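Field reference: "sequence" (input) and "structure" (output). Example, Oxysterol-binding protein:
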Amino acid sequence: RTQAEMAHTCRGTINLSTAHIDTEDSCNIVLSNGGRTYHLKANSEVERQRWVTALELAKAKAIRMRNNQSDDSGDEEPASQSDKSELHGTLKTLSSKLEDLSTCNDLIAKHGAALQRSLSELENLKLPAESGEKIKAVNERATLFRITSNAMINACRDFLDLAETHSRKWQRALQYEREQRIRLEETIEQLAKQHNSLERACRGAPGLSSSSTGVTSTAKGSVQSAKGEASDEDEETEYFDAMEDAPAFITVTADPKHHRRSGSNLSGASEGHPEDWNLEDSVFESSNQSSYNESTCKDLLPKKRRRTRIPDKPNYSLNLWSIMKNCIGKELSKIPMPVNFNEPLSMLQRLTEDLEYHELLDKAVKCESSTEQMCFVAAFSVSSYSTTVHRTAKPFNPLLGETYELDRLEELGFRSLCEQVSHHPPAAAHHVYSKRGWTLWQEITIASKFRGKYLSIMPLGTIHLEFHSSGNHYVWRKVTSTVHNIIVGKLWIDQSGEIEIVNHKSKDKCQLKFTPYSYFSRDVPRKVTGVVSDADGKAHYVMSGTWDEKMECSKIVQSSHGSTSTEGKQKTVYQTLSPKVLWKKYPLPENAENMYFFSDLALTLNEPEERVAPTDSRLRPDQRLMESGRWDEANVEKQRLEEKQRAVRRRREAEAVEALEEGKDYEGYIPLWFERKVDAVTGELICVYKGGYWEAKDKQDWSTCPDIF
């Protein structure tokens, strides 16, 4: 591998001298070496054979290079002068000590010979028999002593010879490690430069669509590099060829004017009537909006004037790798992070941001059909991710007992309350009441892992939504968020996984699939697809769109079984009417790129308000200092708050030990506004709102609130 080749490495490297080269079929090649595997794909069998031959020749060359480096032929690259001086100094010291030992050995031999001569003379004297035997024994011991000292000197000489023999190997090993380090640094630097130049070229390109098409076609060359990694929990990394994930169904738009039923080949098909798709009388009509400024949004304009901007984000430089290199494999919430990686909002405020498109639930209240209502709930569940597409900064971890309220009862019809109910693991409880006919509650625990190249964020917990008039109770979970390019390049976020929304009253279901991004895929990025079906499994609507832009709903007219896929699964073909837009993302405010890409709602979340609880996130000093651009002071304040929280936790742990020694029960931390109950629908233990907060706010009685700031 030359330096130029290393500079263009984008997926990693593999040692060919110990690699196994196998062929799966006529076009696929498998390279494996220990825990790392690459799956490569050629365009034809002839091209695959050419690659296999080239790889075998490269492997033979790598083996020869390894063997040449392992002997003492002296043809290795010379080590640096400092390394030579250090090794020669060590050998010189060993030689000096060996000379001292040799001198001592000569003296021992000399004095030992003199001692033996004296003993021999004593033996020749006429002494009693007993004295003669003792002198003889002493003579034998003196001989053994001389032999032992000679053996020690010989062992020391052998050690010095061995050190001199292996000195070149030591030099080579040290030089190799230094070169590997320099090569890695140069590779990362090259990748960063290439990424920045590509970004500049992309921004300066006159035709972005044609340019990106050309890049895609070029990338799909003779042998395609693989995509993605294996499971997060697996330390071994395996790369696979970029295969497009085939959808489970096919949608065909039908013309309602010319639609006719034809049952000849629609065995087991579910059918609908086009006349049911009456836009004039349907709630869907009010959802077919094109922008934030249209008529349906006029009712959402706040009566109270709220801020529309915050101070611009300072341009502070920070070496990310110097902090993150010691964090690989650790829980993100346990890593001390400076505010440079944060945005001036807490996790409680980010959770409240899910309500930005609450009007979808207001419209769902008016639906007479539960499956139609499910479409709006599905669109709402997807809309909560629209704010994350540019938001790569990390929200502040809430302190235990921290709260956040958003009282928009008079303006938007709802009021929201969040509380941090656990610190390790971090968990937040959320309750929203709307006077327009719905209630939402959830308890979310964030599990996150830093994997070196990317960061996985897994929200754990269920979201509950209940409509007051119908009693429909919907439950779903969030998907996994992944932050890419943690080390090199521009950060970007992807959402992947599946959401199953269940109406526990009517048993309707909606299966939504968030397709992970693939460079080689022809699909639209950030794609979301799904089907709404009733309790009998009959499909009624097809959901489609992207989680960062819009969601559409198409009414199914007919469904039939299509052709069988290559995986042996039979696809379902849905004939649908024209899609209707249920949700479309609001445009970002002006200068959003300098305000952390905050939406209009996000800009107001940390706006100071009176009469809030003393534990409210708006009153958190480090977060307020960061928003003002005083990051150095914010870092100092953040450390103070975290140390204060650690002291409280240590005191609580000591109280628990004391109670255990006395045989008493210790309840630990008890949330102030929420309580743990077994959910009647799911059977899970969840924190639900127990009441009292808004009453305390009316009275301004915050005596029960802890001092956390």
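Residues 434 and 461 are 22 Å apart (CA to CA).
DSSP finds 15 helices and 25 strands in the chain.
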